[in-house]
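FAQ: What does the model actually see?

It sees only this:
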Amino acid sequence: MAGALADIFRKYGSIINDPFLNNLVFQAGAFVMAFVLYMVFSRKAVPDTHSHIMTYIIVGGLFVSLFTTFFFKALTLGPGVSTVAPIVRAGGIITVAILGLILFHEKLTWNLTAGIVLATAGIYLMFLNK
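And it is asked to produce this:
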């Protein structure tokens, strides 16, 4: 639900027509929320033995910011949030599934295969509507 609401507010924000400014403001809001959630629910220090993991988290955050910039750009140029958001989400699911197989040697199951095929078919069907 939070992801869907974020997509709707991204669409409202895309009216500014500057994906870089949109991303900056969006990420500032995300940082404030992350800080509040951390202060309310966690307040744990990162153990010294796991400090290298912070690098992975930071790189992941950089990719989230890049994703958000392109998402805003797609909303500015694209057909609308009802088309852009599902395509972006399904594309992400397909990419993560394939990278999980390659990088983490996860098992290829019939369910995973069917999910990738169905997500790909869903993207294809959305483009047929144009």
